[in-house]
Amino acid sequence: MAKKLYVGGLPYSTRDEDLKESFSQAGNVESATVIMDRMSGRSKGFGFVEFSTDEEAQKAIEMFDGTDLGGRTIKVNEARPMEERPKRDSNSGGFGRSW
Q1: 7's torsion region: left (phi>0), alpha (psi -120 to 50) or beta?
Q2: How far apart, in Å, are the Cα atoms of 46 and each of 9, 90, 95?
Q3: 19 phi and psi, to 5 degrees?
């Protein structure tokens, strides 16, 4: 079963390929994704790496948590399920008030 890790504190220049290459030192990376802002197209400074096994994921946490990547200290831990967020009011036009 694949195990997904959260990686925070990434340099904003990090791309999916960079993340996959770095974390492949710990094992077989199934996927590596840097989260991008939809509006600006820039990195949000965090991403997710998915490993083939729990053992590889644990090894990656031990190898990379608290280490320097591109001049920034990264945080690596097991990803938690995404929490439900309240739906936005579609009448507000995205500006937080109604017209």
Answers
A1: beta
A2: 6, 28, 26
A3: -65, -45
Whether the CA torsion 89, 92, 95, 97 is positive or negative: it is negative
- How do the domains of the chain map onto residue ranges? 3-79
48 DSSP β-pair partners = 6, 33
Look at residues 81, 75, 70 and name the one whose alpha carbon lies nearest to residue 15.
70
Does this model's pTM top 0.85? My answer is no
Q: What's the CATH fold of domain 3-79?
A: Alpha-Beta Plaits (3.30.70)
Through-space distance between the first and last CA atoms of the chain, rounded to whole angstroms:
49
Beta strand extents in 9-98 (DSSP E only): 29-36, 43-51, 68-69, 72-73, 75-78
pLDDT in tens, 49-97: 999 999 999 999 999 999 999 999 999 999 988 777 777 665 555 555 5
